[in-house]
Amino acid sequence: MHTCVSQEWVEKNIARLHIASQLPVSKTHVVGAGGHKSPNIKNQLLIRMKILHAEFLINCLVVKGLIKPIIIGMQTLAQMKATIHIADGSLSFCDGDGKPFKVLYNSNNNECNDEHGPTNVTFIDVQSLNMSPVFKTTLSGEQWNRFHVLVNSFKGVFSDLPGRLRDFEYELRVSPQITNFKARHYPVPVHLRDRVRAEIERMQEIGVLEKCHSSFINPLRIVHKQDGSLRLCLDARNLNQYLLDEPEGPPGLDNVFAMFQGAQVFTSFDLTNSFWQVPLAKSSRKYTAFLFENQVFAFKVVPFGLKSSTSALLRALGDLFPLESATFCLRFVDEILIFSQSLEDHFHHIEFVLRMFSDNGLTIKLGKTQWLKAEVKFLGYILSGEGLKADPERVQAILEYECPKNLKQLRAFIGFINFYRRFQPNLASLVEPLTYLLKKGIRWVWTEEMQNSFEKIKQAFAEHVKLCLPVMNRTFYLSTDASGKSVAAHLYQIDEEGSPYPIAFVSRLLNEHERRYSISELELLAIHFGINKFRMWLQGTKFVVRTDHRALEHLQTSVLNSPRLSRLILSLQEFNYKIEYVPGNQNEIADCLSRFTSRLSNDPPDPGIPIFIIQDSPEIQEIFENFSNLQRSDSRLRYIRERVGKGGIILRSYRLQEEILYHLVRERWKIEIPSSVVDKLILYVHNKFLHSGVKKTLHILKESFTFKSLRKRTRALIKSCNICQRVKGGTYLHAPALSVPSDSPRNLVAIDFYGPLPETPNRFKFIIVVLDIATKFVRLYPVIKASGAAVLDCLLLDYMPRYGQIRKVMVDNGTQFTSALWRSKLRIANIECTHIAIRHPSANPAERYMKSLGQYMRVALFHRPHDQWHLMLPHIEECFNDSYHTSTQAIPSELFLGRRVEREWDSYFPVNIDRILTPELLSQEIAAATGEARRQSQLRARQEDNIHKSFTEFGEGDLVWIRARNISSPSARIFHKFLPQYIGPYIILRTFGNGSYLLGTRSNNIVKGVYNVTHLKKYHPPVTA
């Protein structure tokens, strides 16, 4: 008759209880229904109890050892005016206003009776569920009560363990050509075997796995989840080749989204381990077998990883839901969305779906359920009563685009927005001020008008950009790209007119560990990132992945030796996709997003190669920003600035512009370098261009700067450069090499191979060197094999589409360039072919670049593993093409591309060089360059005839370098050609009359040995300021 509460429960929850008062009790016992007598009761409590929205004051006896936290007595039930309904296991109450309401106290009739079914939730507090704040504050007491009864009536549906669909089994449709296979299994690490064994036992207990006998053995992969647990995955690549395509696919969203008009309330469900809830027919289980500790296990349910897994789930759910449910319920793979026009209808619709799941043994993740939402995130959209709108996170990358700082970034931005110009009718007028900088020969000057135009474009793009709804019967295209610090993906489709329209785009920064990935691993990571971001559209349909990394084309059929590549491709095997290669200039959106996202990072520059990553140096940036103050601190320049600024004696050869002092040198205004930073500026250019020589360094500096003894200082600094002395060889005598005549770009292109080199993670072993004879413009292509087919791919798929038609190529007499394939492809492409003299490789102009290429490689890889040489090629190309060529006395990229090279200091100082490369001027410069090249060639030939070989003599105490005997070590990732050519320095201890010298260490004169002068080179100590 009395209400009792457990003493242990009260002590544990004393802080949470609302106790109105506490009174002592003497000589009191309670007797249970079984006749058991309780210990003496010493206290009774007056507790304020809240049931849904109603509050009651209940007098409770505190009983020690009570089997339940609280047992409500008949007196309390009478006080509440309660009625017990045995049929549905509920209680009816009346609140303080006399309004009745109902709660559930028992739901055994709704429990899951499957032998492997989930453990039921004892009670669900509906007020703690993920609900819209609007409905939380507006629901009436009766609505709260109804919602509570509804959810708890089907509490057996909510579980973290997968249910099992009744009266349905999925049978795999296998090709008749299937044969027994036993793929090589991956060894399980010893320290993980106990955990793997326990996970297999757990999967057996919940009915996911069983022991079997099968002749179809798939590899087992162990994946570490974020919470530290293990996931056992089936590497089903062999099996997927024999599975037939299923007709089931996700519904067409273009028609489905029209149903949302007028919907005011939404609820979404997420199935627990959705595929594991679909039983697999016994005849199909043998195909899913794997081996562990000499025992064969197979899946009793549809496993993750099969390309038909999505079709199996869709077919199973399709048999459950009647057609009329489509007016209020959308099923998209494992996500269920319920939408209604009123709350009353919504309760009915939720009950219909939950009853459907309960009757058929399915379970839902309670933590991922969204209840009674005014707007809900579903499939990347925000759904509300007002309609459909894009998720703001998907356009955030565009809205945060930084202002372009050079021509390359501007072209990337304009290419990005032009890709979506069909959604912006006024885009042409908005972008017009920016296109001025794209004209040939125009110097980079970012004006206020251009800044305003840039901001207007971003604002218009933010307000009017349209992320289209996908059409499910059209092919999806996923464009991906990876840069050194980020990955990006762009999902789109193509309409009837052949124009692409965007669906969504995403990008993210790489973490510290991911930035160490190889190129192939980064590009595959971008694909993995994009597919998982857009899995709601891509899962269950066939789509195309487009990447600018050709090596990934054969990823699904190649042997995977990299564990990281294996893990990434394994996680994508449930998707049905094809990888296509597209050149980088056609992959603008993903490329632009990945490059832009990397600029959002606040991480410091990569310290991997301090030799040439100087453009990110804060010190040089500070010099350029404070150049005016540095000129003032120089006594000589300060004197000149004062005379020019006061307007006294007119100095015609000097002028001040925006507080920067210029000096007129040979009819060109150049910036005066303060003596305090001249060494830093020389070394900056020298290091940036991979330790370029004196002439190239001087030419680059003299474009914009002047100093009274710049040549002398440059020669002294470079001569004493420690790295240059170690990696650069001495001067050798060669036969005269005359210039090959060519008078225009792409008129004659020389081609040669450099290699073999240490194999990179991408399996590259050779470099194809493509040299334009007229302009000396160089392209370097890493390839796997030195074949004619590889050269044809580079020429026909990249070089010619990017730069234009080639008239003639010059090659050697290797079999690659004499095959029928080579001749036929060149004939189709309208390219002539000429061969150099037999057994005379130096006649090929491209061959002459091999020494410089090796020198650049040694510098670039000075602090890097040698199998990463392919990462250095873009920078080496820049060193070849953006610095002065000694034979033409011109910059190759300017002659070949018809644009002036941008230097890092151009954005800091006013325009001081008028160099507009009009077509007429460009043709004149090319003619002058080719003439100069012929003159230099003839001059070198005469010098070779008159030169006399002589050797340097050294004296005791001199410091010298010793030529190194380098040996390759694949295990240490070392290649002998990329090692420094000299070691030391060592001191000469004694001289002999026959050109031999006794050498020793500098510190303690320990004898190194006797060396001939031909193996020695003079050491130049560092130059002091």
Automatic annotation (TrEMBL):
One Gene Ontology CC term in the entry: DNA polymerase complex
The keyword Protease is assigned to this record: yes
PROSITE patterns for this protein: INTEGRASE (PS50994), RT_POL (PS50878)
Reverse transcriptase domain location: 204-383
EC number(s) given by UniProt: 2.7.7.49
InterPro entries noted in UniProt: DNA/RNA_pol_sf, Integrase_cat-core, Integrase_H2C2, Peptidase_aspartic_dom_sf, Retrovirus_Pol_polyprotein, Rev_trsase/Diguanyl_cyclase, RNaseH-like_sf, RNaseH_sf
Protein name per its UniProtKB record: RNA-directed DNA polymerase
Organism of this sequence: Lygus hesperus
